[in-house]
Fold this sequence. Notes:
Shape: globular
Order of helices and strands: EEEHEHHHE
Helix content: 10-25%
Radius of gyration: 14 Å
Number of helices: 4
Number of strands: 5
Number of domains: 1
Largest sheet: 5 strands, antiparallel
Amino acid sequence: MRAxxxxxxDFLAGLLTESDDGYVFRYDENYLSLPNAEPVSLTLPLSTExxxxxxxxxxxxxxxxxxxxLDVAIRNTDxxxxxxxxxxxxxxxDCIGAVSVVPIEETSHE
Length: 110
């Protein structure tokens, strides 16, 4: 399972996870309690319920760069253009706009 924390401006807004079953986005409870909390996207309104999708949510997919910038990312890694979660984790920590995607490193259990 791969995961990322999602920040809106400087606030931890939620958690995005990918598993064999698809994708889940859930807002952070502390974020929801903020008086000025805003949704990360109009397609993901503030909710205490999780959002589920079999494909990467279009909003997050839209954060992935296109054109020459995407070409640079693909050329300098072994990531497939079809591996949208990997591209999101690689390219979107400091993307344009209010939303940031910060990968959560997988820990190995020995």
